[in-house]
Amino acid sequence: MVTRRFALLLALGLPAPVLLPQPWLALAAVFGFALLLALLDAAAAGPLTGIRLERAGERTVWLGGSATVTLTVANTSRRTVRLRLRDSWVPSAGAAPLYHRLTLTPKAAKTVATVLTPTRHGDRPAVRVTLRSSGPLGLAYRQRRQGWNEKLTPPWTLRVLPRFPSRRILPEKLARLRVVDGSAVTRGRGHGTEFDNLREYVIGDDVRSIDWRASARAHDVVVRTWRPERDRRVFCVLDTGRTSAVRIGDAPRLDACIDAALLLSVLATRADDRVDLLALDAAVRARVEGGGHRSKLGRLINGMASLHPELAETDFTLLGQEMLRRDRKRALLVIFTALDTAPMIAGLLPILPKLATRHKVIVAGVRDPIVTRLAELPADASATDVHQAAAAHRVLAERDRVRDVLAHSGATVVDADAGDFAARVADVYLLLKASGRL
């Protein structure tokens, strides 16, 4: 194939033969000479059959960060190869730079780096490598696309983990968890339900905690201390249906739910509770259960990384079937969904009373701050502002009614803006842990 330099050379040589007595014959001679040069240049280009590619680099990255993947290009032939290489990834991988220029002498190898800044979580695969070998004159080239079905290049996929902005408040929540668990002693420590140890009575202790038998043996006043029960079950349910695709700020509602589920999973794992995950809409999209406490956290994060909103109505009967097939041990069931009227009435409400009789249920929904702002009527309001405020008030009123119905059915409702959503869910978990209701 010819390059732009060949076209430029041909364009510069065409005007001269027009002034000669036989212009068509001269034009044919110029064109033939240029084509001959291009053929000779293409023949002199280094062969691509001797190029070997090998990848290395990072396999995972958090959304918002960058990862570097390297590509080692080796020339196994006996001729010098002048390469223009394009390393193609899916658009959401944010790969840069797109092109690399290399000159490889015989038996030489060079490494090029591609920096990936993904814009979406999930798996971001490399697509193909395109190799172009140019001749010494730069008039023609040989080209070959190497797909991943060939053995020359191994496949490579970057796993982009979901954004975790609530990680900044994790130390504060862990400190509260240590207070609840008794690792850090503070005044006003909450009572758990599992016996911890005995200690001497101090002013301010609840007299109902005095152990009279132990006090008689020790000839001193001794009180019992309690800690929250461990090895409880926490079941996170992520709604990936159509309502999870609504944009809250610059991200889907599902991203805020994943962030809250990650924070809750870390807290529950540190409290030695068992965390399971179920993501569903019209079908079950992800299920993580079983395994050790520490190893499961990585599996939970990987399971959430592949989740995306689906344009389908959520079938909450799948949740009922999932909970019924499990044993009857009580668990904390946290359902991350949208507090919209239609999905709640037709989907969750019919099965909620049955779930609430067997488990402690939390229904958590992210509130859209734009609706709250539209409900506030400015001083210089126009007719359009009045209509928008009326519509926003109606949406908020329906949301309040849904929240009341859910609470009446036995669920604890968390309704907060995206910035406070994860913290509110974690606070409810810590409150249940401290009061022994988990």
UniProtKB/TrEMBL annotation:
Pfam families: DUF58
TM region(s), chain numbering: 31-51, 331-352
DUF58 domain span: 198-403
InterPro entries: DUF58
Alphabetical UniProt keywords: Lipoprotein, Membrane, Transmembrane, Transmembrane helix
Annotated protein name in UniProt: Lipoprotein
Organism whose genome encodes this protein: Actinoplanes lobatus
Organism placement in taxonomy: Bacteria, Bacillati, Actinomycetota, Actinomycetes, Micromonosporales
